[in-house]
């Protein structure tokens, strides 16, 4: 999994899944999203 710096588009790589999120999302929300996929 890779997270870019906040304020930019964030790309999450989880195995074969790639997700792009607006950097405005906070880290806990991103972690929750990743955990929901796992």
Quick tags:
single chain, 38 residues, alpha+beta, two-stranded antiparallel sheet, 29% helix, flat
Reading the helices and strands in chain order gives EEH
Give the total of beta strands.
Answer: 2
* Largest sheet: spatial strand order: 1-2
Q: Give the biggest sheet.
A: 2 strands, antiparallel
Average the pLDDT over all residues and give the rounded result: 68
> Uncertain spans, ≥5 residues at pLDDT below 50?
none
The level of helicity is: 25-40%
3D structure, described in words:
The protein is α+β, with helices and mostly antiparallel strands. The protein has 1 helix and 2 strands; from the N terminus they run E-E-H. The chain has one helix at 27-37; strands spanning 10-14, 17-21. A two-stranded antiparallel ribbon has the order 1-2. It starts with 9 loop residues before the first strand and ends with a helix. The model has no long low-confidence stretch (mean pLDDT 68).
Set out the fold topology.
Elements (H helix, E strand, L loop, with lengths): L9 E5 L2 E5 L5 H11 L1
Antiparallel strand pairs: 1-2
